[in-house]
Description:
Oligomer: single chain
Helix content: over 70%
CATH topology: Sodium/glucose cotransporter
Order of helices and strands: HHHHHHHHHHHHHHHHHHHH
CATH class: Mainly Alpha
CATH architecture: Up-down Bundle
Number of domains: 1
Largest sheet: none
CATH superfamily: Sodium/glucose cotransporter
Shape: globular
Strand content: under 5%
Amino acid sequence: MKIAMLVIYFGVMIAIGLYCRKNATDVDGFVLGGRAVGPWLTAFAYGTSYFSAVVFVGYAGQFGWKYGIASTWIGLGNAVIGSLMAWVILGRRTRIMTQHLDAKTMPQFFAERFSSPALKIGASVIIFIFLIPYTASLYNGLSRLFGMAFNIDYSVCILLMAVLTAVYVIAGGYMATAINDFLQGLIMLIGIVAVIAAVIMSKGGLMAALDGLARVSDATVSDTPGIFASMFGPDPLNLFFVVVLTSLGTWGLPQMVQKFYAIKNEKSIQKGTVISTLFAVVIAGGCYFLGGFGRLFSDKIDIAKNGFDSVIPTMLSGLSPFMIALVVILVLSASMSTLSSLVIASSSTLTIDFLKGHFIKNMGEKKQVLLMRILIVVFIAISAILALVQYKSSVTFIAQLMGVSWGALAGAFLAPFLYALYSKKVTKAACWVCFIFSSVLMILNMLVRPSFPAIMQSPINSGAIAMLAGLVIVPIVSAFTRKPDKALVDEAFACYEKPTSVAQKTALGK
């Protein structure tokens, strides 16, 4: 049953990739789907890129164990801040200005917005360096579940996921990714609801499970009775940093923001906002809610030996073969959708922003698309090799890899991108300071973590601080550095003032 479900799933993914080949003949089609992607596809592409095995296995397991049922706040933060507010604050303005500047990637946006090719190269280098460890982290969580379900070697899991993702992304580009994301999103929605119900029922129902969680005690964490069933858990401050990193972080991640470049029209933005938010409530809220009950299975879990990544697989190991197959496909869907989004962002950035015009002159549309396809293979291969090295050497675990990547990328780009959409006062110098501050902070966090203050030793906390610091750094540096050229800025912001006709129900006439 499990193998048959996987074979059908893989067949559909590849078929969609081959079907979408006609939409991936030029750069705009390959990278953005021709900027004609509707609300359902865009919202699901956003959501499935957001939530992967890193969230389902790594974060849900780790933070559910640490904070109990209070970890559900992380999922709700993802829905409200990471989805709803991101769409409302960034969606429309991103779509308008990126089309006006003819920017297909985030580095290209910085280059055109600030008339600075150097900013484009700097941003593309940061993306290349910090997206790779994130892609490597995707395989790890998946391998745990494949090992549980099929008892097969980790290297087989990596090879399978890498090859299948490469096939449909290379064939159909962004449109194939978006359609596959929609189907994968449906699987994730059905799967997470079914899994939560099955796990909770295995502990006697919701009230019995909550009662059992309230009876769990851990003197090393807190002496307060029932702390793991409380509203804010044993460590509200660190819980807050996790919410900031995983929610606000999406505002600065290239693979997430790029979804707004491709959306079709105003109606699609309005619908997409609602769909994306509801999707996040179910998927993220459900994952962290499920992880909150991890300590009910403490008799089967050895954190010291197997780490936090073993929590969720252990919780699911007692389910029926059908449910385990559904879980495997659920997490496979989440991981492949995120991996496809990451490799498209990486390959397009390296081709359009780094190689084109700087190292390879006169690169036509077909040559750019061919190079992006080659680089997709390269990136997937590198991430797979890193995943194997990480697994065999036990360098770190999922949450750390993701925390470093998200902290560096979102810390570097969130504030400059957000302010550049809304303010004419942002300067190139402010962008550089933010880029360098966040990148250096997260690199130092990896290399000399014990030297950091206690609150910042966690890469998650450091990443959250990098994002929040950027929101302060950019306006302060902009106030004391050379002002941008007025004509350049006015031309960039002219797109917002362009007249457009709408129905009277949207806006009253004179």
